[in-house]
């Protein structure tokens, strides 16, 4: 694909500073640019690359002012990352499954398929499944009975969606993720063994949700485990039964959310965070990586860190003390000796 800088600017709502007729052949990292490439600059730490890059054009913020001359054409935009997303989508090749329904796929006669649905080799579509228009089901996907998938979704290879689960419109589920496996529900018995509690609920993904690879979302014991509109989950995440993740929340890899916890809207949760069950977390939280959340958080917008998670600034202050703990202990011991001497002197005087 070859396009001009002017065409790209029109596509992303930017303005060209330089040659609008410049021919662009594809995107590249700013430090790995080449003739015909378009790159981007959003982090000031990378600004020095813009003066040496071999890329022909670079996306920059509308407020960017070079400190000295640049050799590339600049395309100025309001939001570099948002514009980059549009640009990458424009240049991305079609790596999806070949369109149409593979002769090697199994589609039950009672399944309902929308217009221009794609189903790849060795995928299994059970009875009662409903798939919306323009949705792509890649290879080796299993869809259990009465699963519903909306329009314009991409379900990557190896995904398993158990019976009765619901996926909204414009969702993406990456390879080998599982929706609707049983929640971790077991009742202890007097003899020390456990009896399994049947998990009869389902999982609901609302619109515009993206699930990373090898993530597991358990079905509810009763009712639904709900991932609300616009949520983005990274790879290797565990969402337990009856959890609700609020809209537009993002969660990084290796995080686990225990059963019946409600995570607020527009929150950012780092990697390897552990959240215990039956909690209610406020909106707009920022939970730093490896934190452990063990209690309700009622104040919106808080920034938390540590195990157990506390206010971010308090954590940093506490950690500063911890780093100097040996010196603090030495000082305390020294003071104790001084106090003992004073006591001895006082006893002698009396």
Could you characterize the architecture of this molecule?
With 350 residues, the protein is of the alpha/beta class. It folds into three domains: 3-91, MurE/MurF, N-terminal domain (Udp-n-acetylmuramoylalanyl-d-glutamate--2,6- Diaminopimelate Ligase, Chain: A, domain 1); 106-312, 3 Solenoid (UDP N-Acetylglucosamine Acyltransferase, domain 1); 318-350. The chain contains five helices and 38 strands. The strands form six sheets. The protein has an eleven-stranded mixed β-sheet with strand order 10-13-16-19-24-27-30-33-35-37-38. It has a ten-stranded parallel β-sheet with strand order 8-11-14-17-20-25-28-31-34-36, with no helix packed on it. The model has no long low-confidence stretch (mean pLDDT 95).
E-strand count:
38
CATH topology of the largest domain: UDP N-Acetylglucosamine Acyltransferase, domain 1
The CATH homologous superfamily name of the largest domain equals Hexapeptide repeat proteins
The overall number of domains is 3
Tell the overall outline.
flat
Average predicted local confidence, pLDDT: 95
Give the helix proportion (percent range). Answer: 10-25%
| Global Rg | 28 Å
Give the DSSP E fraction (strand runs of 2 or more residues).
25-35%
> From the 3D coordinates, which CATH architecture of the largest domain would you assign?
3 Solenoid
Q: Give the strand order, joined by hyphens, for the main sheet.
A: 10-13-16-19-24-27-30-33-35-37-38
Class from secondary-structure proportions: alpha/beta
Number of discrete helical segments: 5
First-last Cα distance: 97 Å
Model regions low in confidence, pLDDT < 50 over at least 5 residues = none
Largest sheet features: 11 strands, mixed
Instruction: Please give the CATH class of the largest domain.
Output: Mainly Beta
């Amino acid at each position: 694909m070859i396009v001009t800088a002017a065409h790209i600017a029109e596509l992303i709502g930017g303005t060209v500073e330089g040659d609008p007729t410049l021919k662009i052949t594809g995107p590249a990292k700013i430090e790995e640019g080449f003739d015909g490439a378009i790159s981007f600059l959003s982090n000031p730490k990378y600004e020095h690359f813009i003066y040496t890059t071999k890329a022909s054009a670079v996306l920059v913020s509308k407020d960017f002012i070079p400190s000295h001359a640049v050799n590339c054409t600049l395309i100025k935009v309001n939001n570099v990352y948002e514009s980059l997303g549009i640009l990458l989508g424009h240049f991305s090749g079609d790596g999806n499954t070949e369109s149409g329904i593979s002769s090697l796929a199994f589609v039950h006669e009672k399944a309902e398929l929308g217009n221009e649905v794609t189903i790849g080799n060795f995928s299994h579509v059970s009875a009662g499944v409903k798939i919306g228009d323009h949705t792509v089901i890649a290879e080796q996907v299993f869809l259990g009975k009465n699963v519903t998938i909306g329009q314009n979704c991409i379900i990557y290879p190896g995904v398993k969606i158990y019976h009765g689960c619901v996926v909204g419109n414009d969702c993406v589920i990456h390879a080998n993720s599982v929706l609707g496996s049983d929640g971790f529900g077991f009742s202890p018995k007097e003899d020390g063994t456990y009896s399994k509690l049947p998990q009869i609920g389902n999982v609901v993904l609302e619109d515009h949700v993206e699930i990373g690879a090898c993530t597991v979302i358990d079905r509810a014991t009763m009712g639904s485990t709900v991932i609300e509109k616009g949520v983005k989950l990274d790879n290797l995440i565990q969402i337990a039964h009856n959890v609700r993740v609020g809209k537009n929340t993002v969660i990084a890899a290796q995080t686990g959310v225990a059963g019946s916890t409600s995570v607020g809207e527009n929150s950012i949760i780092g990697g390897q965070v552990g959240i215990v069950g039956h909690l209610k977390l406020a909106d707009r939280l920022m939970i730093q990586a490896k934190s452990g959340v063990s209690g309700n958080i009622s104040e919106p917008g808080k920034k938390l860190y540590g195990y157990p998670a506390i206010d971010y600034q308090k954590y940093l202050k506490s950690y500063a003390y911890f780093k100097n703990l040996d010196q603090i202990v030495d000082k305390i011991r020294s003071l104790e000796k001084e106090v003992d001497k004073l006591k001895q002197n006082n006893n002698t005087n009396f």
